[in-house]
Design the sequence.
């Protein structure tokens, strides 16, 4: 779907796109698909770990070292929440329940794609993050990503008792 998709899964689910991102024969198992929450913010801590460095202690680093997941030593992501922003605006938040395993996503703001019906902003080169370039949702659009990874059917109080 492209990386211009804001907080939608088609643009953020796989760091770096749909092609294999990490290849390291003899260290990482080939053709492994990891269906746990991860983000581009995880690349920095992973590279620091591989280089034998130490993460800065004077600030919060939101990313996680991906090596335990990549090597199969961990089955679950350390991320409980992932926040998806457009510029400085919060557009969506993803919650990976630690006890239940569900992955919920709430969209507060969605970008208006161009041309209408497209999956990104192809005629502009970028999608605005605010103003007339977005639609606000109150209540937010809610999705169960395990049952609806394409975020096609928002849940409601009528369709989701939880």
Sequence:
């Amino acid at each position: 779907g492209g990386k211009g998709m804001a907080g939608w899964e088609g643009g953020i689910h796989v760091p770096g796109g749909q092609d294999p991102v990490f290849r390291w024969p003899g260290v990482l198992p080939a053709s492994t698909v990891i269906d746990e929450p991860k983000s581009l913010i995880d690349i920095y801590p992973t590279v620091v770990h591989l280089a034998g460095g130490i993460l800065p202690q004077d600030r919060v680093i939101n990313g996680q070292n991906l090596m335990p997941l990549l090597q199969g030593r961990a089955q679950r992501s350390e991320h409980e929440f992932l926040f998806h922003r457009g510029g400085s605006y919060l557009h969506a938040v993803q919650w990976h329940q630690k006890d239940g395993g569900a992955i919920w996503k709430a969209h507060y703001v969605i970008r208006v794609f161009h041309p209408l019906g497209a999956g990104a902003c192809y005629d502009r080169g970028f999608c605005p993050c605010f103003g007339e370039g977005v639609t606000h949702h109150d209540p937010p659009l809610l999705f169960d990503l395990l049952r609806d990874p394409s975020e096609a059917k928002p849940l409601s109080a009528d369709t989701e008792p939880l």
